[in-house]
Amino acid sequence: MYNVKKLKNNLLICIMLFYYNNTSLNNIILFILKNGFYFPIAEMLLLMFTNDIFLSSIIITKLYSLNYFYWFGSYYNFFPEYPQFNWIKQFIRFTDTGHVASALVYFYPNFLPLAHNVHFLIMLGYWGGKVFFNIGDADKIQIPDGQLVEWHMDLLTYIHHTVPYTMILYKLASSEMCYSFDLLSLAQVFIWGWTWLFIIYLPWRIFVGDPVYSILDDTTPVKTQIGFICGLHIGMLIANFVGYSICKYLF
Description:
By secondary structure, the chain is an all-alpha fold. It has 2 domains: 35 residues; 162 residues, no CATH class. It has 9 helices and no strands. Helix 5 runs antiparallel to helix 7. The chain starts with a helix and ends with a helix. 22% of the residues are buried. About 2% of the residues have low confidence.
């Protein structure tokens, strides 16, 4: 009887240890998934599968925002009564239009000048706003229980606003032809920006009340907002000139 009782106790201990270890393992896996620590591995696998660094990079950079809003979208208040729709925010920012521009280049290479100007503007707007206007990340919130590794999310954000433009430069450098950065490509980026402003940004701002960017918040002086917007328009001109200069130097 004693041996049977001892066996039951040992079995119970084994079950408890197994449950504890599996719970810990699940927590570790969730921690890795939520913070996107698997992105480098996914990038390498995609690169091996596609043999195309441009394609693998644009997929991974989009995966970053998809992953973030999948796990943490419910912590935002864009739709208080329907938090399951908070994930829509990842398609509202001007940065997110860069993914569309990159996809256009992949399928239609002639859109490379437009994509260059869009990504240049994204990078200029983000880093210019951060350095000269001290703009913080409007989507950055406190996630409870230590689920989010902030330094890693910051790193991914920096990558998100740098790597896509680098990939566009790679496409320009590896091309066998000179792309035209002219009045047409300039008009295209202006139309692109205005389309985003009037079709995507303003309806979102009006109906949801989210400024998207902290510099466009109601608490920011109007002069600062106008100056920032004017600066972006000047940035479009600079982007087209930079693209023209790059092609002229390469070819």
